[in-house]
Amino acid sequence: MIDVQRLVKTYAGRRILDDLSFHVSPGRVTAFLGPNGAGKSTTLRMIMGLGRPDSGTATVLGVPYRELPAPLRSVGALLDASAVHPARSPRAHLGWLARTHRIAPARVDEVLELVGLTTAARRPVRGFSLGMRQRLGIAAALLGDPELLILDEPVNGLDPEGIRWFRTLMRALADEGRTVLVSSHLMNEMALVADHVLVIGQGRVLSDGPLGDLLRGGTPAVRLRSGQLPAMAVALRNAGAELTHDNSPNGLVLVTGLSARRIGDLAAQQGCAIHELTPVEPELADIYLRLTDEAAEYRAGTPFTGGRRSEVAGRA
Amino acid sequence: MRDALAAEWIKLRSLRSTPALLLTGLLVTVLTGLLLCLLIGPEFRRAAPADRTGFDPIGLSYSGMQLGQLALVVLAVLSVGSEFGTSMIRTSLAAVPGRARFLTAKLTLLAATGLAWGLLTGSAALLCGTRALGAAPSELPLADVLRTTLGAGLYGALISGCAGAVTFMVRRSIAALGILLPLLFLVSSLLGASSRLAAFARLLPDRAGLRLMQVHQEPGDLTPAGGGAVLLLWTLVAAFVAYALFSRREV
């Protein structure tokens, strides 16, 4: 469990955290989302007792982090995968961590095996790819078999196999009743793994609820491809639909406000040939972008495409 | 505390640079002392027995310490500086959230490393130096030999702890070396050269601390115990300031 109450933090006159409150419950994976500069990392550092809030409190398992008797056995955190001495091997890195809590050396081998670093265990971290560092960071977080996991951008740099492995791992940990808080910018990935979504922007909670609720709040759309698009467009607009060009070639539009069935009927009435008619479920990425639109701190100056959807598609 | 200390020990010994630096420091100290003793040897051996005490054969043997200590200082600085430089400090504090405990463990381990290094290096330097000089056993009273060898250990412990504490204050290896190297290398020699500032120079950490390894005493010099106490005071003040800053700062 994580409990954040009315956190306020100001850096150089800028309010990074603005009366931020939320609660993270056990037994599920909570995605912690927000644009760059929204205050995610600052929040995580406050939770870990590494930063000092101007006011408010952050507790883990009911107490401030610093008061945990054996922190690594309660909380496993991956805050920054590159925060390892480059000349140290994974085994030595996990070795000193384990020693602080008298964790048996066998457990070090166990987590190395779990994250797939056994063969690289004695090599200096210097030569590791980001993905391997992430694996080491995840191993460090799991070392004390903690009830609570806090993972900041753990999927960055993982290969597809690693991403799938990580997804399964998150699921398993949450199903065992642990609390899992994962921050990421990879919306598609979060939509697959999260049960609960917490979105912050400009230091405030923008949305906090189950993934399903959030997705239901989004607008379903229908992808339509037709050779007689102009004629269709008129009929659809008359029926109250909104059309978005998807920047794709040959007569593809995204229709909102009408069901696929209604669109099909309209096409039949108009005598228009339809080449594709696909209902599109609202995507987390779209909902997220809408939520954070006003709150985004560092956005590209001029959007180079018309529709947001295509920006997201390009990124995914 | 024991666990934190043991963890720091694993950190230190898991870096290949640690033995390399310690060995370099030892060799530099011994060889510099040896060279000086070989150069002074003929003059020392020619001198009348009454004048020989002015040479301080024991103190001369340790004269490489001033140079060799730099490797120890670099080790201490890197040990603390790399925590901040790589953000590993966050992982360290996640595992050992008590700032006082973490800082104490780190500095204690550095002091212990410095102690072991000082004892070993001091003994080797004394052995090589006095033989090169050709000092007679009567010129090497056991009490002085023991006192200066222990003094070398104590000096290593305190200077290493002091360097670690300074790095905790400035948080960057480069900044810490920028303060410590000129202080240990230039300032004390420069101040020492000027007679008006000599009194002040005697109170600098290295000048005061090196008295621990000297026997001969000139008028105005601190006593070995006094010198050791001054260095201890420097180190304690540095550790205290380091804690005051570190306990307040965000990482």
Number of helical segments of chain A? 12
State the total count of DSSP E strands of chain B.
0
What's the tally of helices of chain B? 12
- In angstroms, what is the radius of gyration of chain B? 19 Å
Instruction: Kindly state the number of beta strands of chain A.
Output: 13
Largest sheet of chain B: none
pLDDT < 50 runs, ≥5 residues of chain A: 303-316
**Low-pLDDT residue spans of chain B:** none
Bin the helical content of chain B: over 70%
- The N- to C-terminal Cα distance of chain B equals 21 Å
- Secondary-structure-derived class of chain B: mainly alpha
Order of helix and strand elements from N to C terminus of chain A: EEEHEHEHHHEHEHEEHEHEEHEHH
Keywords (chain B): Membrane, Transmembrane, Transmembrane helix
Organism (chain B): Streptomyces violascens
Protein name (chain B): ABC transporter
Transmembrane segments (chain B): 20-41, 67-86, 107-132, 152-170, 177-204, 224-246
Give the topology, please.
The complex is a heterodimer of chains A (316) and B (251).
Chain A: E1 2-11, E2 14-24, E3 28-33, H1 40-47, E4 55-60, H2 71-74, E5 75-78, H3 90-100, H4 105-115, H5 130-142, E6 148-152, H6 160-175, E7 179-183, H7 187-193, E8 196-201, E9 204-210, H8 211-216, E10 221-226, H9 229-238, E11 242-245, E12 252-256, H10 260-270, E13 274-280, H11 284-292, H12 308-315
Parallel strand pairs in A: 3-7, 3-8, 5-6, 6-7
Antiparallel strand pairs in A: 1-2, 1-4, 8-9, 10-12, 10-13, 11-12
Chain B: H1 2-13, H2 17-46, H3 49-52, H4 57-61, H5 65-85, H6 88-95, H7 99-133, H8 142-170, H9 173-193, H10 198-201, H11 205-210, H12 224-246
Protein name (chain B): ABC transporter
Transmembrane segments (chain B): 20-41, 67-86, 107-132, 152-170, 177-204, 224-246
Keywords (chain B): Membrane, Transmembrane, Transmembrane helix
